[in-house]
Specification:
Layout lengths: L1 E9 L4 H11 L5 E8 L5 H13 L3 E5 L3 H14 L3 E2 L3 H11 L15 H15 L14 E5 L5 H10 L4 E5 L17 E6 L2 H14 L11 H18 L3 E3 L5 H13 L13
Parallel strand pairs: 1-2, 1-3, 3-4, 5-6, 5-7, 7-8
Helix pairs in contact: 2-3, 5-6, 6-9, 7-8
Length: about 280
Amino acid sequence: MTRLHLHLLSDSTGETLENIAKAALAQYDDVETVRHFWPMVRTETHLERILQEVAQNPGLVIFTLVNPATRRILEQRCRTLGLPAVAPLDPVNDALSGLLGQQAKARPGRQHVLDAAYFARVDAIQFTIAHDDGIAWEEWEEADILLAGVSRSSKTPTSIYLANRGFKTANIPIVIESPPPPFLFTLKKPLVVGLTTSADRLIQIRRNRLLSLNQAPETPYVNQDAVTRELAYARRMFADNGWPVIDVTRRSIEETAAAIIALVNDRGDGRREGDSHD
């Protein structure tokens, strides 16, 4: 097991850096990463305190600092310490400057401005939370996406992820003993997507859920025949209504959401991620 100190310095929230580091580290096995996260680095005094920590725990430095003076100090000190310092957005900014014929504005956190898209995301998150698990079905027509699937098929986490991408998302559990309201089959605006999974995987997830709740691990909820019938009932409903289906058995939440966003973009109704969907 290799141990790596990873220093992430940003003059904004650092969300971009965290995502870049996470994506890069996913390509390596057997690495124990010690993360040192430094957001809102906007003064030389703050940077000096951070550099003391970097010197004590040498490793990789990744940064997004737009202030030339602050950046210059960081790069010089890293060279003195013999540490790599990487600015991952530089190649993108260089390419954009060349194509657009202008220099990037040195404004920290510019991507987090309170514009219409930001408030659309907030609205989408509020809508999604209020329409989880079949709640307030009378308002489903206001949704951009509606996810349908049996219990524990990742509807809720996928809905929340989509909401953070700006999509108003409702979801409903498909239960044999409690059919969905007929209103579901008359929706015009939302894209209805069916989520399915393998019976074995679903039983495993449900058993873990029961154990976490200190409930009996052997119930019809995890019975092989019952779960198989439940999945077949849901798949038949999806097919009868012509809804697209995504098998989440081997997909992460992010991969499932990406597939759903692709379906939305392919509808041809002009709506795209980040737009206001009202």
